[in-house]
Amino acid sequence: MQIADSTALGQITPLLMLVGSSMLFGERIGGLRLALIGLGFVGAVMVAQPTMQGISVYALLALGNAALSAARDLAGREVAADVPGMVVAISAVIVVLAGAGVAHLVSEQWVVPETRHLLLMGGAGLFLIFGHFFIFMAYRVGPTSVVAPFYYCFTVWAVISGLVVFRQLPNALAICGILLVVASGLTIVSLDERKRRLTVVA
Asked: Is 54 helix (H, G, I), strand (E, B) or coil?
């Protein structure tokens, strides 16, 4: 599966967070937000492009990643303020490491890594730790309406990475789905920011 497509499916994470916040914390969604969430899921289906034979297992994995990321961020809201952000980030990486280890045992053939592979994995692990750390800290100290728009930059960078590194570009339907997911998410963020400003003025 192309990196842009899998990343786009991950962009429904903020939409899932809204649904989770409503179910777990009693936050009101409203009809308009619910419709926008629905459009986001439609966009995700356009990216996944299920056929009569069923949806791709890779698309299911990407959707599972989005659901678990939303669960992570919702759980992060309950982490006490005195818990260091780096502890949370490293804990997340340990969970990723355990899950990846199990997945590799089940689906991959193990080989002895070369020095280049070890360096790439070490670099990826370093960026992963700080990525989790900065995402967690951003949501901890900043309003969701301010932080969330940056989340949708992932898709832009994924498209660029896929084109530069893998020489891949999503098909027209997937691009429309990506735009729909991003547009629905940003519209929800915009509505939240407008509501916040009106509340402050009032």
From this structure: strand
pLDDT grade for 74, boundaries at 50, 70 and 90: confident
Measured in degrees and rounded to the nearest 5, phi and psi for residue 199 equal: -65, -40
Which pLDDT band holds residue 118 (cuts at 50, 70, 90)? very high
Distance in angstroms (rounded) separating the CA atoms of residues 126 and 76:
21
pLDDT value at residue 19: 77
Tokens 């599972």, residue?
64
CA R_g for the chain: 18
Q: Cα–Cα distance between 199 and 202 in angstroms, integer?
A: 5
Residue the block writes with tokens 């952000």: 85
Output phi, psi for 53, to 5 deg.
Answer: -80, -5
Residue 51 — φ and ψ, nearest 5°?
-115, 180
Amino acid at 121: M
Going by C-alpha positions, the residue among 181, 128, 1, 55 that lies closest to residue 189 is 181
Residue 202: the pLDDT is 57
